[in-house]
Each structure stands twice: as structure tokens, then as C-alpha cells.
Amino acid sequence: MKHSLQPKPVLLPSPVLIVGTYNSDGKPNMMNAAWGGIVSSNPPCISVSLREATLSYHNIKKTEAFTINIPSEKFFIEADFVGMVSGRDHDKFSETNLTPEKSKLINAPIVKEFPYSLECELIKQVELGSHTMFIGEIVGIIADSEILTPNKLPDIEKVRPMLWGSFGSNAYYNIGTKLGNSFTVGNELQRS
Amino acid sequence: MKHSLQPKPVLLPSPVLIVGTYNSDGKPNMMNAAWGGIVSSNPPCISVSLREATLSYHNIKKTEAFTINIPSEKFFIEADFVGMVSGRDHDKFSETNLTPEKSKLINAPIVKEFPYSLECELIKQVELGSHTMFIGEIVGIIADSEILTPNKLPDIEKVRPMLWGSFGSNAYYNIGTKLGNSFTVGNELQRS
């Protein structure tokens, strides 16, 4: 039986995006954001939406750059922590024992221990009520060599990313097993 | 060792969004899109980015409405199929044996067999090169009673959503096991 629910922003799965920026004094900062996703292929763009209350919001406004760092599942405690406290009164890199490394392409830090990071240049901002959507062009990717496929792309089975179960479960999960190949399994339903 | 990769839109995990729309003749259509995510909490908004070549793009431009239907893992073949063919020459609902049901709130169909659907009213469009981002305000949610938590939200462990491994694996996956509670496990790193 179908139920009508109150409108809520519940997408399953939601990603775990660790947004890297520099504070105005040059100190590296990071935060956990679930509101975002790929928004274009060419140029490759990703969005992340932040509230004005966050320090990262102001950092991106100033530096016009950010990284999206993808944590592997073993970093779920660190990922949660950087979403709970503010960079205004915490040095989140030192408190998590994670290492900031300056991107060579843009003015934002990557999280060295994470399997890969998207280097993003701010190209657009869209005001949406509680949140401002920052759209970044992905100008580069920094990845650990061990997580790459033969054609040099991040392999989900090696990245072992985490995901967020949104407000229903309020919990993080890892990925399970492969169901089938995309743009392939659907052929079963093609008319002969 | 870190490698610099060519910029590509590789987010892990990526969601599997089945976008429901009506064609200009009123026939229901659906497609598989991975470029999207939540973009705001209040009002609750979601984005989905489509190429002009798709029929769904033109449908949304006309009807200013769409649904985002979340398939459970058992529908991975159907989900793949509706991303492989065009509604211009396929009746994707009848060919997948899925049932369109008109939303009571907006001018778009939901996929009845899927665990839940977001009913979205188009509020903004952003041109981004290859793709146009459609931002929909989530004005309602239609969900199966069996997938709800006690406080009436979709429970990821009952929804059993699928996810896409992006261009590295070109495959779909299910969710794995719970890692820990969000806004909770990070407390371990709080200074005493």
C-alpha cells in the first residue's frame, strides 16, 4: 500500500562528500556534505550545496575553489566527525590525523589518505533557500594508483566508498555486491 | 602513490535516478539518470541533469514537472533498460512490465512497483554545456508502507536501493552493511 509522505530531501543512496577548502588565513579545512552530485559531463561538473552558517561556504565564496574527497569506508568515523564540528574552533585535519595536500591546479587542499579527490573550480552559484549550490568544474582528479582500473579510472571495488542512508536510518553503509554491468543487463528486455 | 587523472565526472557512489515524465501526447515515459542529487533542504530540492537529445529533457521543459523514482536492487535490469532506449520508439513502461501511476500533486507519473518516488515541481534550470540541470522542488513523496521507518521515512535497509559504480566499473551494486550512525560515531574523535 502506498503512503503520501511529507516532502523531505530523501535520496537513497546519498553520497558522502568531504569538501576541502582553505580558510581566509590559509589553514586547510574540510566538511562532510551529502547534498551534491554530478551535474554535467562536458565540462565535467559537480555540485555541492552548503548553508551560509558553515565556514566552508565562506571559504568557497572567497577562494572560488574546492575539492571533493571521497572517503573509503574505513574512514567513516573521520568523515562523520568533520561534519559535526566547525573549522572555526577545530583543526579538523590534525584532530583526525588526516593530511592536507595543496592541489597543484586549484586553491584547495586534498585529503591525502582518501582514495581519490576531485579538484574543482567554482563556476556558478545558485541560491536555493536554506542552501547555496556551488557548481564546480572538475579540472583534475588526484587518485591513489592502487584504486585505478586498467584505463585509469577509480574502481568502486577498490575505492570501497561509503554512503549515507539519509534521514530514515541516519547511518552510513558500505557498498555490497555487483548486480550487473550497466548499458548491458538491460539488453535482456530488448525486443528481438 | 598519487596519480593525476584526466578530469572526468566520477562520483562514487552515483545514484540511480529513474526520471518519470509525460510525453506531449500524454504517454508516460521514464529514463535512467545518474547526474543528480539533493541540492537544498528547505525547500527540499533535487537536481537531475539531462542532455537535450533525450525525450525526458523536452518533457520536463513542457510539463515543468518530473518524478524521481528509486528502484530497489531487484529492478536493476529494468533500470538499465530504460537508460538504453528512447521513449521516442519504445513504450518503456509496457516493455518493462512496470506500472505508471499519475501523481496527485504534479503532472508526472510515478513507477508503482518501486519502493518510493519523489514528486518534483520544476523551479529552476541551469545550462551547463552538455547537460541542463533541472532543479525540482520535492512537493511530496509516495512510498510503500513496508519500507518506512517508525517515523515515516524511507528506510535504506528496506528500500534496498541500487547504485552505479560510474565509468570505472560500469556496473550496478547494492548496498552492503551498516558502518555506524551518522552524527554519532564522530564523537569518538571529540576532544574530552
Which features would summarize this protein structure in a list?
192 residues; homodimer; 3-stranded antiparallel β-sheet; mainly beta; 13 strands; 5 helices; 7-stranded antiparallel β-sheet
Q: In this structure, how is the largest beta sheet of chain A organized?
A: 7 strands, antiparallel
User: Given the helix and strand composition of chain A, which structural class is it?
Assistant: mainly beta
The largest chain-to-chain contact, stated as pair and per-chain residue counts, equals: A-B, 107 and 107 residues
Number of strands of chain A: 13
Q: What is the mean predicted local confidence, pLDDT of chain A? A: 97
How helix-rich are the residues of chain A, as a percent range? 10-25%
Query: What is the radius of gyration of chain A computed over CA atoms, rounded to a whole number of angstroms?
Result: 18 Å
Low-pLDDT segments, ≥5 res of chain A: none
- What general form of chain A does the structure show? globular
- Please state roughly what percent of the residues of chain A sit in beta strands, choosing from under 5%, 5-15%, 15-25%, 25-35%, 35-45% or over 45%: 35-45%
**Strand arrangement across the biggest beta sheet of chain A:** 4-3-7-10-11-6-5
Give, in order, the helices and strands of chain A. Answer: EEEEEEHEHHEEEEHEHE
Oligomer: homodimer
- Count of runs of 4 or more consecutive helical residues of chain A: 5
